[in-house]
């Protein structure tokens, strides 16, 4: 799913800021919509699906924290990045309570903006399909169990009858293993098939 596009909504009452953000992020391959009022932003969030909201904390009609509260009533999972020209302890605490992923200070620094958005994409796994997430989780679990027991790939290969190459691909989430292969790996690591999928 490498071609999946991350959808971003920018909600800021300043059209110039919206244009700058849209320009920067579109050049990085993100699909960007803009809204200049909280009402329009909330309407777009209701009608369309976005991965990330970039939200200005200071707007005349409704402040960003109030907008964030309204969003969280319906969507606890949406990644939110706040824009602020006037960071304060109160707004920082309120933003954290609202589950904000990160913030960008005005005036906008392009490199910082892109870095923050990419970090959020990575943290939320927005470019991974559910299958890719599962492969990554199982691979990480196998690697951690193997390292906890100080075993090399070669030793696990000997115990399971699987090739070192296949084991390496499973750990790096480059190959989907059969249930039979995963059962052999779990047994070799004194674990269970269920434990390999735990936390997913």
Can you put this structure into words, describing what you see?
This protein is α/β, with parallel strands linked by helices. It has two domains: 118 residues, Rossmann fold, CATH 3.40.50; 67 residues, lambda repressor-like DNA-binding domains (434 Repressor (Amino-terminal Domain)). 54% of the residues lie in helices and 12% in strands. It contains ten helices and five strands. It has a five-stranded parallel β-sheet with strand order 2-1-3-4-5, sandwiched between helices. Helix 4 links the parallel strand 4 and strand 5. It is elongated and about 65 Å long.
- The fold-level CATH name of the largest domain is Rossmann fold
Helical element count? Answer: 10
CATH homologous superfamily designation of the largest domain: Response regulator
Q: Could you report the average pLDDT, rounded to the nearest whole number?
A: 87
- Strand fraction equals 5-15%
Instruction: State the order of secondary-structure elements, H for helix, E for strand.
Output: EHEHEHEHEHHHHHH
Give the topology, please.
Elements: E1 7-11, H1 15-27, E2 31-35, H2 38-47, E3 52-56, H3 64-74, E4 79-84, H4 89-97, E5 102-105, H5 110-124, H6 130-148, H7 153-160, H8 164-171, H9 179-188, H10 193-196
Parallel strand pairs: 1-2, 1-3, 3-4, 4-5
